[in-house]
Fold this sequence. Notes:
Blueprint: E1 4-7, H1 17-31, H2 40-46, H3 52-63, H4 73-94, H5 103-113, E2 116-121, H6 125-136, E3 146-149, H7 161-170, E4 177-181, H8 184-192, E5 197-200, E6 215-217, E7 229-232
Helix pairs in contact: 1-4, 3-4, 4-6
This protein binds xylulose-1,5-bisphosphate and magnesium ion.
Residues 8-11, 17, 21, 50-52, 85, 121-124, 127, 157, 186 line the site of xylulose-1,5-bisphosphate (XBP).
Amino acid sequence: ELKALIFDVDGTLAETERDAHRVAFNETFAEYHLDWDWSVELYGELLAVTGGKERIKFYLDRYRPDYLRPSNLDAFIAELHQKKTARYNAMLVNQPIPLRPGVRRLLAEARQEGLRLAIATTTSLQNVITLLEGSLDPAAAHWFEVIAAGDIVAAKKPAPDIYHQALKALGLKPTQCLAIEDSGNGIRSALGAHIPTIITVNDYTRHEDFTGALLVVDHLGEPEQPFTVLSGNVDN
Ligand code: XBP
Ligand code: MG
């Protein structure tokens, strides 16, 4: 029996990547006079690696062999990422990002049905709280019994660790939960923890491999804006 919904954050609850995370990275690089500039297209390639610090490292390894690395590279990346997180949070406070279609409705219906709610994300906890409070409800962080986020696990998505963490905190078996994800890395993480998964695609992820998904839709749908099923089937 279904007991809980476990939501991904970036790309699932809201389109945070292109115009918020990406811009916050670029503004931080500019602040440090680094000639690193992540275009919309390049960012799509960089999303192959989850986690901001891991993504910066990947960018340097893959695209900037020319960059003269400082001896304390990991500490420098951590510092950049802290600044990026501060910028991202300020951005969200100044201009909240709208939730994707159906997110608010689904959460309200789940609460009404007595389903438990959790989050399993790669992004930092503060980013999740700011997004929930600004875009959903000032009290929304409390709607989620468990928020498993960021560096609490060593291996980020597509590793299953963050979903294992969420299951453990909920005290539930994987089959008592449903994960809602938007990306290939996300579904591999959730399925790696044996949690049935629904995918709601976005522009960055629609061509990814969602093998094993219960259902793939273009968004979660509103009465006046129905979703389209891209694969799988809805039986009610
Ligand atoms: C998405 C991510 C994150 C964000 C940036 O996480 O991979 O790295 O792009 O956030 P999810 P940070 O889809 O699991 O929510 O810079 O805080 O990592
Ligand atoms: Mg995501």
